[in-house]
Amino acid sequence: MDNSSTSSDLGHHLPEDTTPQAPATESLHDATSSASETLAPRTDFSQLSAHAAAIRQELAKIIVGQQELAELLLTALLADGHVLLEGVPGVAKTLTAKLLSRTLDVPFSRLQFTPDLMPSDVLGTSVFRPQRGEFEFRPGPIFASIVLIDEINRAPAKTQSALFEVMEERHVTQDGTTYAMPEPFLVLATQNPVEQEGTYRLPEAQLDRFLFKLHVGYPTAEEEVQILLGHHSGFGGVTTDAVQPVLTAAQLADMRQLVRRQHVEPKLLEYIARLVGQTRAHKGLYLGASPRASIALLNGAKALAALRGRDFVTPEDIQYLAPAVLRHRIQLTPEREMEGGTPDDIVKQIIQQIEVPR
């Protein structure tokens, strides 16, 4: 009696125990599919990656090495920020800027800054037309999509100040009329950190308008051999005409839209704020970075992540760009300068001090 009852109970309960297994399997499958969808890229960066690779390839026709420099220039291009290139003479600062402009199908102009350069030589001037009895504005060389300013620290303060409005607001005001700059608009400036005679220190307000300050160093021994081989094989090596445009203004605008939509976790925004805020409290600095530095670090990290094929920003992106964003926005105390410290040293210390979000 008991056995039959037990058998009956087992027979009654077994289907109930086994039946839920099928839905459980389906639920696990759904969870796996959901996880796969979450990990899948939310943005298609194939076109962006293809254009970036094409620009690198064009630059490599003439420039030997400098892979990191090329990546940072592309990052600034996608982040819509100006770049200050600093290095000793002969390390291809100007050449690199010119070649980058040739890879884009946009207007280009070059300005050689000198001590006698006037603001009107940069921005333009109004010319009186007797036939019409009125003044006509003639735009200066700054009205181009990519503007190369060579030896930017050789112009006096009044000429430097003429760049404040156009670099920040992307327009020029002349005689009460505002003239918008073309899109895109990018200033690439070079300066020599060693030579001091005939130069002027750049105002802090102007330095703060540059997204990055990049150091252009010497090539390695192997890279210098390749440079020599290129010049030896044909007088002067490959000409700049070999570099062809691979990106239009419309394509660049589309790529920048992708960058702006990058995903950034709130904790990373707090991380950026803490990094920049620490520059204002560091004992080795008497001038910290402004909120513009925080915005530059955010925009740069979003562009760098896109270049590396990711639709989200990581702490490593922020740490990688921090020196380029901050080194020209902070100033050491005299004591720290006498000890041989550098802005990059301070930035490295700050990165090590701030807890990395995970």
UniProtKB/TrEMBL annotation:
<feature type="domain" description="AAA+ ATPase">
    <location>
        <begin position="79"/>
        <end position="220"/>
    </location>
</feature>
<dbReference type="InterPro" id="IPR041628">
    <property type="entry name" value="ChlI/MoxR_AAA_lid"/>
</dbReference>
<keyword id="KW-0547">Nucleotide-binding</keyword>
<dbReference type="GO" id="GO:0016887">
    <property type="term" value="F:ATP hydrolysis activity"/>
</dbReference>
<dbReference type="GO" id="GO:0005524">
    <property type="term" value="F:ATP binding"/>
</dbReference>
<feature type="compositionally biased region" description="Polar residues">
    <location>
        <begin position="18"/>
        <end position="37"/>
    </location>
</feature>
<protein>
    <submittedName>
        <fullName>MoxR family ATPase</fullName>
    </submittedName>
</protein>
<dbReference type="InterPro" id="IPR011703">
    <property type="entry name" value="ATPase_AAA-3"/>
</dbReference>
<feature type="region of interest" description="Disordered">
    <location>
        <begin position="1"/>
        <end position="38"/>
    </location>
</feature>
<dbReference type="InterPro" id="IPR050764">
    <property type="entry name" value="CbbQ/NirQ/NorQ/GpvN"/>
</dbReference>
<dbReference type="Pfam" id="PF17863">
    <property type="entry name" value="AAA_lid_2"/>
</dbReference>
<comment type="similarity">
    <text>Belongs to the MoxR family.</text>
</comment>
<dbReference type="InterPro" id="IPR003593">
    <property type="entry name" value="AAA+_ATPase"/>
</dbReference>
<keyword id="KW-0067">ATP-binding</keyword>
<dbReference type="InterPro" id="IPR027417">
    <property type="entry name" value="P-loop_NTPase"/>
</dbReference>
<dbReference type="Pfam" id="PF07726">
    <property type="entry name" value="AAA_3"/>
</dbReference>
